[in-house]
Design a protein that fits this description.
Shape: globular
Distance between the termini: 16 Å
Radius of gyration: 16 Å
Bound molecules: adenosine-5'-diphosphate, magnesium ion
Structural class: alpha/beta
CATH topology: Rossmann fold
Number of strands: 7
CATH superfamily: P-loop containing nucleotide triphosphate hydrolases
Number of domains: 1
Order of helices and strands: EHEHEHEHEHHEHEHH
CATH architecture: 3-Layer(aba) Sandwich
CATH class: Alpha Beta
Length: 223
Amino acid sequence: MTCQVLAVASLKGGCGKTTLAVNLAAGMMAGMAADTGRRGRVGLVDADPQGALAHWAAWRGSGGPAVSGLPGVLAGGTDPVAVIDRMASNHGHVVVDCPPSLDMAVTRRIMERAWGVLIPVLPSPLDLWACAETVVAVHQARERNPGLAAWLLINQAEPASALSRAMTRSMAGLEVPVLGCMVRRRAAFRTAILEGVSVYQLGARGRDAAREIDQVIEEVMGT
Ligand SMILES: Nc1ncnc2c1ncn2[C@@H]1O[C@H](COP(=O)(O)OP(=O)(O)O)[C@@H](O)[C@H]1O
Ligand SMILES: [Mg+2]
């Protein structure tokens, strides 16, 4: 099977790219383990020059005994696409945490290399309008990579509030489909990062969060 590269991208900072990239990669590993009875190879590339993900991996001691079930992380450095290619040569899946940069060049090059791109968006019309630029980048990347799949994912959804009418209207106007499932605002996502793990390693504390990530993976991979 050829390696599937999934980019988590948005030109907007703070929408959950890093959080989702870590947990999606961990969830893919868990899923592959369940399917095949052995750990699948899933890698993470930190293409954000701010390097939060690589920092997190170094901090949790990637040089020491690895926490079982967590993917390896490579820093994208100055040429993230080369790093993605290197990781793709011996992994089943590579998840890429893209930069929130106004200079779209890097994100666009990653989208040209990717199989799919997931765009997290906070549940407010303002945030949805702000991701229009990212949607344009998807269209531009498709000129070179016509098969590129793309979805918006509502992140940090509030349990009680149904999406407003304005939000629903705005979503209908976008050319990139919105995933049917959402990721709720949950303390487990912050706790996991703080503890140097993903929600899959939190046991009962992370169960609901992990179930949501599983749904995202199922919807994206089932496409
Ligand atoms: N579903 C969620 N529930 C709770 N907190 C979240 C969730 N997603 C992201 N966060 C928090 O929101 C902040 C921004 O998320 P982050 O993943 O760093 O975004 P980005 O990488 O897009 O800048 C972080 O403090 C993170 O812990
Ligand atoms: Mg980030």
